[in-house]
Amino acid sequence: MPKLKAPCLCTSEQPLPRTLTALRQQGPVTSLGAGLDTLALVGTQLSDSLISTNNGVALLTGRGGYAPYQTSAMPFRLSRNRINMRIAPDVPTNLLRSKDTTNARQSLVLACAGGDISHRIETACDYDGRVINAIEAQNEICAAPQAPTIPGDVVPLAAVRNARDNWDQRETGHHLNDILLDGGVTRHTTLPYVGKSRAWPVAKQTLTSFVSFLCDRKIGHARLVPGSGFIQGDLATSGTAQMADKILLVSGDNSNFALDLAQIASVWVTRFGRLSQLEIYDEKSRAITILGADPAADITYWNALLESLPPASYSI
Fold first, then answer.
1. Proportion of the chain above pLDDT 70, given as a percent
2. Based on the number of CB atoms within 10 Å of its own CB, is 124 exposed (0-12), middle (13-18) or buried (19 or more)?
3. How far apart, in Å, do the first and last CA atoms of the chain sit?
4. What predicted TM-score, i.e. pTM, was given to this entire model?
5. If one looks up domain 157-307 in CATH, what number appears?
6. Please, which residues bridge with residue 97 across strands?
7. What is the Cα–Cα distance from 253 to 95, expressed in whole angstroms?
8. Spatial distance between the Cα atoms of 58 and 52, rounded to a whole number of angstroms
9. What is the pLDDT of residues 43-85, one digit of tens each?
C-alpha cells in the first residue's frame, strides 16, 4: 500500500510502521490494556488528528475527530463533518500509545490478532495530544482474538438460512455487523445463496472506472473500510481519482482513499430494502471496502448505478 501525499502529518519520508515490532523500534510504546470501547470514546474528544485505517488492501484517512459513539447495537449513522467509527466492543484488541521521538507527537494505534496495526490516530495539535496522553493504562491487556476460519468448500447452512430469512428486514447496520463479526468471511460465503435479486457479483475490472465516474460527477457516496472489530467511514462528495501502478488513489481536501486492485478477488452488489451497496472482497473472503449511498442523495439513482455494472462474467 503506497504512502499518500495529503493530508499528511509526517515529517519523515519513512513509511509508518505496520506491526507492533516495527512500532517499538521507532520509539517508546505504552500498552494501555484497553480496546475498541476506549478508542471510540476517546476519539470523539479529538479535534484535529489524522485518523487512518489500513487493512492491507484498502486505506482510508481523514482529518479531525470521531463522530458520536456508535456500536454494533446502534442504528448505523453517517456524519458529514466527522470521521465515522462503528465498533463491536466485545472484539478483543490491543490499544497502544506511542510517541514519535523526532517531533514529540502522540499517537494511538490499534493492534489486531497477529500484532498488525490496522488503525492509527496521529495528533496534530496540543489539545489532542493531551487527550491521548490522559488515557490511563489498565492492568489487563486485551487478549488477542481468535479469528474463526471457514474452509473454502464448506457452506455454513445455518448462516445461509439466517441470512435468507432476515435479509430484507435488516437495516444497514445489521448488514455491516456481519463484517464486524469475522471480517465478512461468513457473509461472503452466504452471498451466492441469499437470492439473485439480493446479491450478485459484478466485474471487478470496472471498479476503477466506476470510482472515477463518482469522483468526476461529484456523486456523494459512503466509503467504509473495515478493520479488526471496527469500520471507519466517511462521506465523499469530491476528490480526484488516479492510478499508481495497481493502486487506485482518490485524493480529497481532508481525506484520502487507496485500494490495491491486485488483491481484489470479487465485487458484489447487495440489495436490502430500498438500499444497495458495493461490497469488495479479497482472496481470503475478507470484506476490504464497502461503497454505499449518500443518505441525503437520490437513493434510486445510486441503485441504478450499481445495477448498471456488468456481471462478473463480463470481460474487457
1. 88
2. middle
3. 26
4. 0.90
5. 3.40.1570.10
6. 30, 108
7. 29
8. 10
9. 999 999 999 999 999 999 999 999 999 999 999 999 999 999 9
